[in-house]
Amino acid sequence: MKENKWIRGAIPALLLHCSIGTVYCWSTFSGEIANYIGAKKSSTEWAFSLAIFFLGMSAAFLGDVVEKDIHKSSLIATICFTLGMVGTGFGIMLKSLPLIFVCYGCIMGIGLGTGYLSPVKTLMLWFQDKKGLATGLAVAGFGLAKAIASPIMQKILTAFDNNPAPMFFIMGGVYCVMMFIGHLLLKKPSTWVEKHSEGGGLKEFFKTLGENFKTSFGNKTFIGIWIMFYINITCGLALISQEKMIFKAIGLSVGVAATLASVTAIANAAGRLGFSAWADFFKDRNTIYKIIFILSILFTGVTVITQGIVKGAGVPVLAVICVGLLIMVNAGYGGGFSNVPTLLSDHFGMKQISAVHGMCLSAWAFAGLTGNQMATAIVNRVGEFKEITLSDGSTASVNPVGYQTVLYVTLALYIVAFIVCNIMIPKLNNKTKKEEA
């Protein structure tokens, strides 16, 4: 096949990321899973947390596998993601929460990590003059997947009387085809030549893993990038996980809330593409993170000062401020993801970017365990749930004080992240960026 950057880089990246990005559709069917298997919704939430944890850790452990053979890693991603989806369907049929944890959390999580990493370096090699735009394009697919898949999944759920099992079987088959085509198409440019050690078994694998860990976490700059990446994800997950209930807390109807959920999903994708493409114009790519954190601090601070979530149901202007906050958080959350590989390549070069990027994605793993769980703990312990009347006349049980309290924590964390990206990450320009020999 003719070497074309769109056919060999961009299209397969979108096929892979638009498939695995549906992990963010969890809120679409988590309640239905809990009801069908007879479990508490808070218990089923651990399936999503485990999926994000295994995503980050598999990326960290398998980064060198991706580095050496993207065909092997993309095939691993296709198999694991498909088995995870189908296995989750069987777990629902058997009403087995542990099986759901294993399939959706562990097996599918491994597919997420390897699938996320596989196209990134390839894209940066095909689009060397516009690395940010290239990675933003692929990672935007990850964010856009929720907006595309959520309504489809909802229709399938409705067609099968809210039994989620058939949905997992159907969507698992669709994603298997999409990812396998992406696997077949994905290829690095023939002009890129790199040498890797052959074989070595487990001993060589763990030796290389140790070397990658030392290279990464032994470097102050990497630690700074890891910390700000972790904070951005933690804050994003904390607010995104409560998004649906925040919309209700400010009095919006279920229909409006659903529409706005699609808007925030699009903002997530737009942030991945927009912030990364914008970063290409800066001499120092870290500037884009400073912008993201300044905007996040500004929007969060205004919502905190005005008590937007607590008073939003009675004051339309404050409700608009809350919606603006969630749009900004989603955009900044996406932008933080898309700029990490290019920022790392500026500091560490392209030679081992998949391995270093994989190590950095371990921040995603730990944020997956802390972000939404932290928000849930605050909401369950601060304030109280009360019934309010929504704009369509229906009622909902919400805890505005609890959601508002989450903002105090995220505001403090955003400030820490802004300080870190200013003092721990050195400035680079086009002349001092790390280049490969």
Give keywords.
Growth Hormone, Chain: A; 17 helices; 437 residues; mainly alpha; 2 strands
Can you offer a commentary on this structure?
With 437 residues, the protein is mostly helical. It folds into two domains: 1-185, MFS general substrate transporter like domains (Growth Hormone, Chain: A, Up-down Bundle); 213-437, Growth Hormone, Chain: A (Up-down Bundle), CATH 1.20.1250. Helices cover 78% and strands 2% of the residues. The chain contains 17 helices and two strands. The chain has a two-stranded antiparallel sheet. A hairpin with a 5-residue loop joins strand 1 (386-389) and strand 2 (395-398). Helix 16 runs antiparallel to helix 17. The two termini are 29 Å apart. 56% of the residues are buried.
Give a summary of the structure in a few sentences.
Helix content is 78%, strand content 2%. It has 437 residues and is mainly α. The protein has two domains: 185 residues, Growth Hormone, Chain: A; 225 residues, MFS general substrate transporter like domains (Growth Hormone, Chain: A).
